[in-house]
Amino acid sequence: MLIDYSVVLVYLIVGVLFVAAGIVTAALIRPSRPNPRKNSTYESGEEPIGSPWIQFNNRFYIIALAFIIFDVELVMLFPWATAFKEIGWFAFWGMIVFAFILALGLAYDWAKGLLDWEKPNPQIPSLDELVITREQYLDELKKKEQTGN
Amino acid sequence: MYNAVVNELIGSLGLIKPELALLVTFVVVIIADLIFKNNKVNLGLSILGTIVSGIFLIGMSGTNTSAFANLIAVDPFSEFFKYLILISTLIVLVMSEFSEELHNRDVWMGEYYMLVLGMALGMFLLAGATNLIMIYLALETMSMSSYILSGYTKEIKRSSEASLKYVIFGSLSSGIMIYGMSILFGMTGSLDLYAIQSYLAANGFFQPAIFISGLMVIAGFAYKISAVPFHFWTPDVYEGSPITITAYLSVASKAAGFAVLVRFIKLTFFDAAGSSDESWIMMNSIPWDMVLAVLAVATMTLGNIVALWQSNVKRMLAYSSIAHAGYLLMGIVVMTNTGLMSILVYFFFYLLMNFGAFIVVMLFAHKIGSEEMDDYEGIGYQAPVLASLLTLFLVSLTGLPPTAGFIGKLVLFGAVLDSGWYWLAVIGVLNSVVSLYYYAKVVRNMWLRKVDNGKGTLKFSIQSQALVMVLGIPTLVFGLFFGPIMRWAEHSVRIFLGN
Amino acid sequence: MLQSIPLEYYLIISAVIFIIGSIGVITRRNAIIIFMSIELMLNAVNLTLVSFSSFLGDVSGQIFVFFVMSVAAAEAAIGLAIILALFRSKQTIYVDEVNLLKW
């Protein structure tokens, strides 16, 4: 019976050979002339600044966590939906209780502020410092002439 | 076709009223936490819910049936453990109010109460579970809540480390347990413990697969009760967690683990028809008594010997609780109803002693800021009431008369000797003698070493002292008047054995 | 051409996956890799349960698989939250550097 799997073995070997032949031939034929510019990290045309390891943002983890829990709730919902018609009211109330407890968890998350997508606070320069009156401008010009001369 | 099943399910809802009360409390605490944002309200609601659940439990005393088509058994055995778990939950909730570890750090306590209730709910279901799915789900509910609770004070590095070790170890053990359950399901064709028993009764020969899968499932339970060699998480988690959670884990979690271990072994591997009340007939010639005896001896010995060189009181109490699990395992080894009764009696007294010791250690740690035995020197003269109560609890843990611990050990060793396991009883007694050393070390430090560290008399609040008295007086009283507890345990040993 | 695969093949595969998962839990240093190995063990259990269930014709094995999957998801969520909490205070996820609690 194992001989029936010979098809799979031939497929596997041909696949591996196909890919390997391509890579090996390319590696043998192409020239190899590295220079520092070619070896540096690609950053869409810009100059790479600093280290590629950034500080992980917490909010991604929290959103992923909420997703996985509700995804599993969805998994529980599918067989219930299939058998719902035959069981009737008991199934309905049972699923209402289950979904209510999970919705309570979601409400708890929401109220505690875990779902807020925090924006960074940019420092917007206020207009008062940039705009000066004409007298101030003339005063500063006079000061510069006095110190310059 | 489903109408009969649905009707039975609806009818069974009346049998799980205590669990439903805990579930409703859990939901109400979540909603109250969102609306009121007040920790006192959360605490009050949790205590109220626990008491309501206790009232329902009292109202259901005497039922001996199975609910939800053999998913849960509501019988006197599970009722005893549910009482133990309820009492522990109440004590822990009150203890959390006095714990400075939790309140000094401005930690939000709402989730703490919810998780304690969730853990209590899981333990309730575990005490009655008779189906492999139910055992797994209840065990995981209980374990998940305790993983988070043990890392609750996450600013303390030890707490997070303890929680990480607990999670890794717990997930590994539960993975092994469900692998054993899956093979047991495959060999016997059913997930229900009663059906597995009838399959094993019909095919009476020794099957290695059943033995090994049974061992793997027992390994999962042995992790919960911290039997050796599955105990490695216990000292680290007990030392790193907040002390209220340590006390809760050491009593209630162990109680639920023992309940399910006894139920699993008795229901699955013992012949219901041939067993009488005094001797159980083993099926399939699998030597479960030798397996459990080896576990018991290893647990007792390692727990007692490693506790000898501990200097941290919490860690010493953790190893002592491992040793007590070893003594309790002896009660299952004898395979009689008397052995089971001795386990129940010992557990009740163990609850009083262990909680008392942990509460006093917590109160001392608030005042002197340390949990090392060397820092307890002379504290007997600075806080005489609490120090004498701690002495009482430690003497009870050793098993000296006239305390409740002595009665517990007396009943346990009596059951072991009655069934002819003489070598096991001798090892148990030797281990009790060894345990005297490390308990006496604390007592000696408190009373016989006088140190002048200028602190004077330490003052404790009346409520915390009252709580410790509530645990200490029964420890003394039950050492003399233990009749009611014995009668209660004798009545509770009936495990529902299926129709 | 291919007859139905006998039961032993499934069980051997799932046993091998279970063992690979347990070796991963025991051997690896990175806490996240340890959790991945635990998930691998739970998936091996799922495979065992489903293969027994289809071999015996009893659907309760597959119902067990539902619950194992949901518990595995919850366990992974809790485990990763605990690793995050540990990383905040100790700045490491290698379990051999987490050694404040000893003998």
Order of helices and strands of chain A: HHHHHH
Q: Average pLDDT value of chain B?
A: 88
Gyration radius of chain B, in Å: 22 Å
Helical residue percent of chain A? 55-70%
Strand order of the biggest β-sheet of chain B? 1-2
The proportion of residues forming helix of chain B, as a percent range, comes to over 70%
If helices are DSSP runs of H or I spanning 4 or more residues, what is the number of helices of chain A? 6
The structure class of chain A reads mainly alpha
Mean pLDDT of chain A: 84
Tell me the fraction of residues in β-strands of chain A, as a range.
Answer: under 5%
Tell me what the structure shows.
The complex is a heterotrimer of chains A (149), B (499) and C (103). Chain A has helices at residues 6-29, 36-39, 58-87, 89-111, 127-130, 134-148. By secondary structure, chain A is an all-alpha fold. Chain A starts with 5 loop residues before the first helix and ends with a helix. The model of chain A has no long low-confidence stretch (mean pLDDT 84). With 499 residues, chain B is mainly alpha-helical. Chain B has a domain at 287-499. Helices cover 74% and strands 2% of the residues of chain B. In chain B, strand 1 (65-67) and strand 2 (72-74) form a beta hairpin. In chain B, helix 15 (337-368) runs antiparallel to helix 17 and helix 17 packs parallel to helix 20 (462-477). The radius of gyration of chain B is 22 Å and the shape is globular. By secondary structure, chain C is mainly alpha-helical. Chain C is elongated. Chain C starts with 6 loop residues before the first helix and ends in a 13-residue tail after the last helix. Chains in contact: A-B, A-C, B-C. The B-C interface holds B 132-133, 136-137, 140, 144, 147-148, 151, 154-155, 157-158, 160-165, 167-168, 171-172, 175-176, 178-179, 181-183, 185-186, 189-191, 235-236, 239-240, 306 and C 11, 18, 21-22, 25, 31, 34-35, 38, 41-42, 44-45, 48-49, 52, 55-56, 58, 60-61, 63-64, 67-68, 71, 74-75, 78-79, 81-83, 85-86, 88-90, 95, 98, 100-101, 103.
Features:
heterotrimer, B: 499 residues, mainly alpha, two-stranded antiparallel ribbon, 74% helix, C: 103 residues, Helix Hairpins
